[in-house]
Amino acid sequence: MAPMICEPYSVRALTLWQPYASAVAALGKDIENRGWSPGNYRGLILVHAGKATDRAALRYVPQDLTLPRSAVVAIARIAGAHTDCAGECSPWADQDSTWHLELSGAVQLPTPVTQVTGRQRIWVPDDALRQRVAAALPPGAACLAAHLRKEPGACTGGAVAYGADSTTPAPAKENAACPCAPTR
């Protein structure tokens, strides 16, 4: 098994078509279906709504669901990924998809961060985007905002501290209230 990606203040992004991005943000969508392996990344992701819409899927979501495009709509966590459930792990799972990314802890942005260009696969957001998303988080997500801003000591659960040799991660402090606490 490949080692987990372990770095201070790790955040990635994932672009989803609508209505799937808004479903993660507002409807509890806990599986993202993909035909490719997510690799070894487990941790926080910015949920980015791309430009495209799956028109057929619109019949499965409330008509009043807001569907911004080219925008970050939420932050969630990739808690795991699997290939062996035949679509039975969640109502959101597609049995024809090779990989199911397990999403947890979604925090919807009250106002989406717009004018964001997405990418294919899991991608690394730049610091300017991280700052914009941190500023858009709801007041109850102060720890997440600190994590996005890379503020040392402001978040007790999400930042992975490195040992004396600067390459070996030290055990993270556990804090159940912290939404960016490591998944074990």
From TrEMBL:
Q: Which InterPro entries match?
A: PUA-like_sf (IPR015947)
- Gene3D superfamilies with a match to the protein in the record: Hypothetical protein
Q: Which domain of life is it from?
A: Bacteria
| UniProt protein name | ASCH domain-containing protein
